[in-house]
């Protein structure tokens, strides 16, 4: 017989065995709940830090460096008041007499026209950045500071390509200024502040986010930050700030159907502006690198026609006299890297070349006839390259009735003296003239038109129909499904790939 009390002891042991896990589980859940609450509090604190309750402290800090710009220009006056009174008005005779008297006298009198814009101070000794279009053609430039003080400004230099101008004022005391930030660090969604003088209403602040990066409008060196911070006429030349109070852009343009802000504004990225400003400060002008080639993007059909692995790089369509020609670059080369940086497209290459020092020796890697080559090029200066003439080959005289050929929707004929005269083509141009285009063809879809000149096929020069037929056969023998043509229109070259069919 078991001793009395044992069942009680057994039950207690069982109770302990049962209750211990339950107790441990409760503690684990309590700890997990505490961690969750702490994480939520931390997240709220981080969010509060990322988005301040008020932008006033930041605005107060940086606003003294933002200025209003007023320009004055003398323009030709009009001959008397026009359209002021309707016909039949009792004042009609008076204004007609006034106009007649003005016409019989000294004629139109010049008048002054004013314009408004914005800018910002970048040094305590009075350098001011704004847009070129704000001060272009101005006879007088007045800078109004946040304090209300006004000073006359002089133009140090301008760059129409990026729409940037550098001004200088002479102040008796050091001026408050702001510094540029790294625009490459700006992310889509980051908070930004725009400051300026919208619609001539005086100092104004607006806030928004970075909506997009690397926008291109119309310029060669464009690198715009898109923002929904309110930008209107008069904001041009004003700064776009990040939350550290650094300038990451210069407000330049808006996209709007009615002239007012609809939340699509563009600021030239600070990493572009700083290079321009440094050159304007040192030289009074810009000095950009110049490679000396005409280029186009490598599309997939062009890549297929050239046997390239991927559609990347910049395809050279022409090599006029200049650094590239002296170094040995050729039409049809595909630039794959420039100065050690891989080339994705023409826009990136143009910007990289322009940012390179004049006179620098750079390595340019190209694909030529399926093989990679690296060529050293000494860069020239872009601003000295204007007016560079294109070069061509020798053109045979062909005054007889030319042979024609129908080719992939095109009717082609060799260039003769008569055709050259009709098309305004220089006598040294060699190629085949497009005399007709089938509007249902791939050639028409890709933009070929009557009057175009085909100077190369399969990256080889063509002067006769026989040359073209040989290039077509060579492409087919190589297993190519398309043929690359170099087409010129009014002297401007571009490559077009046409499918050869079965």
TrEMBL record:
<feature type="active site" description="Charge relay system">
    <location>
        <position position="133"/>
    </location>
</feature>
<feature type="active site" description="Charge relay system">
    <location>
        <position position="163"/>
    </location>
</feature>
<comment type="similarity">
    <text>Belongs to the peptidase S1C family.</text>
</comment>
<dbReference type="GO" id="GO:0006515">
    <property type="term" value="P:protein quality control for misfolded or incompletely synthesized proteins"/>
</dbReference>
<dbReference type="InterPro" id="IPR001478">
    <property type="entry name" value="PDZ"/>
</dbReference>
<keyword id="KW-0645">Protease</keyword>
<dbReference type="InterPro" id="IPR001940">
    <property type="entry name" value="Peptidase_S1C"/>
</dbReference>
<feature type="region of interest" description="Disordered">
    <location>
        <begin position="381"/>
        <end position="403"/>
    </location>
</feature>
<keyword id="KW-0677">Repeat</keyword>
<feature type="active site" description="Charge relay system">
    <location>
        <position position="236"/>
    </location>
</feature>
<feature type="domain" description="PDZ">
    <location>
        <begin position="280"/>
        <end position="355"/>
    </location>
</feature>
<dbReference type="GO" id="GO:0042597">
    <property type="term" value="C:periplasmic space"/>
</dbReference>
<feature type="binding site">
    <location>
        <position position="163"/>
    </location>
    <ligand>
        <name>substrate</name>
    </ligand>
</feature>
<dbReference type="Pfam" id="PF13180">
    <property type="entry name" value="PDZ_2"/>
</dbReference>
<feature type="binding site">
    <location>
        <begin position="234"/>
        <end position="236"/>
    </location>
    <ligand>
        <name>substrate</name>
    </ligand>
</feature>
<keyword id="KW-0346">Stress response</keyword>
<dbReference type="InterPro" id="IPR036034">
    <property type="entry name" value="PDZ_sf"/>
</dbReference>
<keyword id="KW-0574">Periplasm</keyword>
<keyword id="KW-0720">Serine protease</keyword>
<dbReference type="InterPro" id="IPR011782">
    <property type="entry name" value="Pept_S1C_Do"/>
</dbReference>
<protein>
    <recommendedName>
        <fullName>Probable periplasmic serine endoprotease DegP-like</fullName>
        <ecNumber>3.4.21.107</ecNumber>
    </recommendedName>
</protein>
<dbReference type="GO" id="GO:0004252">
    <property type="term" value="F:serine-type endopeptidase activity"/>
</dbReference>
<dbReference type="Pfam" id="PF13365">
    <property type="entry name" value="Trypsin_2"/>
</dbReference>
<feature type="binding site">
    <location>
        <position position="133"/>
    </location>
    <ligand>
        <name>substrate</name>
    </ligand>
</feature>
<keyword id="KW-0732">Signal</keyword>
<dbReference type="InterPro" id="IPR009003">
    <property type="entry name" value="Peptidase_S1_PA"/>
</dbReference>
<keyword id="KW-0378">Hydrolase</keyword>
């Amino acid at each position: 017989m078991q001793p009395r009390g044992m069942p009680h002891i057994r039950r207690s042991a069982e109770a302990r065995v049962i209750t211990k896990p339950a107790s441990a589980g409760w503690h684990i859940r309590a700890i997990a709940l505490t961690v969750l609450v702490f994480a939520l509090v931390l997240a709220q604190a981080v969010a509060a830090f990322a988005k301040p309750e008020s932008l006033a402290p930041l605005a107060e800090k940086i606003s003294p460096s933002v200025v209003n710009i007023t320009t004055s220009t003398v323009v030709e006056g009009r001959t008397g008041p026009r359209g002021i009174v309707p016909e039949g008005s009792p004042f009609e005779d008076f204004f007609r007499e006034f106009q007649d008297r003005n016409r019989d006298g000294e004629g139109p009198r010049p008048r002054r026209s004013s314009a408004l814009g914005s800018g910002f101070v970048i040094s305590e000794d009075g350098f001011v950045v704004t847009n070129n279009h704000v001060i272009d053609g101005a006879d007088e430039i007045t800078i109004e500071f946040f304090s209300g003080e006004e000073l006359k400004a002089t133009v140090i230099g301008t760059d129409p390509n990026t729409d940037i101008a550098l001004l200088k004022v002479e102040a008796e005391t050091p001026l408050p200024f702001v510094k540029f930030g790294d625009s490459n660090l700006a992310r889509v969604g980051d908070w930004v502040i725009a400051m300026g003088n919208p619609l001539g209403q005086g100092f104004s602040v607006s806030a928004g986010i970075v909506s997009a990066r690397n926008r291109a409008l119309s310029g060669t060196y464009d690198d715009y930050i898109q923002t929904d911070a309110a930008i209107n006429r008069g904001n041009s030349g004003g700064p776009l700030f990040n939350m550290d109070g650094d300038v990451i852009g210069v407000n330049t343009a808006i996209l709007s159907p009615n002239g007012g802000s609809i939340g699509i504004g563009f600021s030239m990225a600070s990493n572009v502006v700083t290079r321009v400003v440094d050159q304007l400060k040192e030289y009074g002008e810009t000095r950009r690198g110049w490679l000396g080639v005409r280029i186009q993007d490598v599309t997939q059909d062009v890549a297929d026609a050239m046997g390239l692995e991927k559609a990347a790089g910049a395809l050279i369509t022409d090599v006029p006299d200049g650094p590239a020609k002296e170094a040995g670059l050729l039409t049809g080369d595909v630039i794959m890297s420039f100065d050690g940086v891989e080339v994705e497209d023409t826009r990136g290459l143009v910007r990289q070349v322009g940012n390179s020092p004049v006179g620098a020796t750079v390595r340019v890697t190209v694909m030529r006839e399926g093989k990679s080559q690296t060529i050293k090029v000494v860069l020239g200066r872009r601003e000295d390259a204007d007016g560079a003439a294109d070069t061509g080959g020798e053109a045979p005289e062909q005054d007889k009735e030319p042979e024609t050929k129908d080719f992939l929707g095109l009717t082609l004929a060799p260039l003769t003296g008569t055709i050259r005269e009709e098309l305004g083509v220089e006598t040294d141009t060699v190629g085949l003239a497009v005399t007709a285009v089938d509007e249902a063809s791939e050639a028409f879809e890709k933009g070929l038109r009557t009057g175009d000149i085909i100077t190369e096929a399969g990256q080889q020069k063509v002067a006769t129909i026989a040359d073209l037929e040989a290039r077509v056969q060579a492409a087919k023998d190589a297993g190519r499904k398309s043929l690359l043509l170099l087409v010129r229109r009014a002297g401007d070259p571009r490559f077009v790939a046409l499918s050869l069919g079965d």
